[in-house]
Amino acid sequence: MTGGTFVVQPGSLFPALHRLEEAGWLESDWQPSENNRRAKYYEMTRAGRKQLSQETAQWNRIALAMARALET
Q: How far apart are CA 3 and CA 52, in angstroms?
């Protein structure tokens, strides 16, 4: 997805997913996987989509400001 630019360690991913779920931004559900094992599937909630939109807008403002600063 990121072309190797970002590598998320397993010890970081699941605690982050848990925090997002506790914040109400994700919901999870246990379902059978493709190989018929139990797997936890996550889905973003309406509140999560709203938060993502806000965070994305903030990130875009920061990235634009940094790009402008680097141009000068």
A: 22
Confidence of residue 8 (pLDDT cuts 50, 70, 90): confident
pLDDT digits (tens, 9 = 90+) for 26-56: 999 999 999 999 999 999 999 999 999 999 9
Q: Which 3 state secondary structure label does DSSP give 35?
A: coil
Give residue-wise pLDDT tens across range 62-72.
Answer: 999 999 999 97
Classify each residue of 35-64 as buried b or exposed e, where b means 16 or more C-beta atoms within 10 Å of its C-beta: eeeeeeeeeeeeebeebeeeeeeeeeeeee
* 3 state SS of 27: strand
Q: Which CATH class is domain 10-71?
A: mainly alpha
Q: Which sequence spans correspond to the domains of the chain?
A: 10-71
Q: Please count the other Cβ atoms lying within 10 Å of the Cβ belonging to residue 19.
A: 11
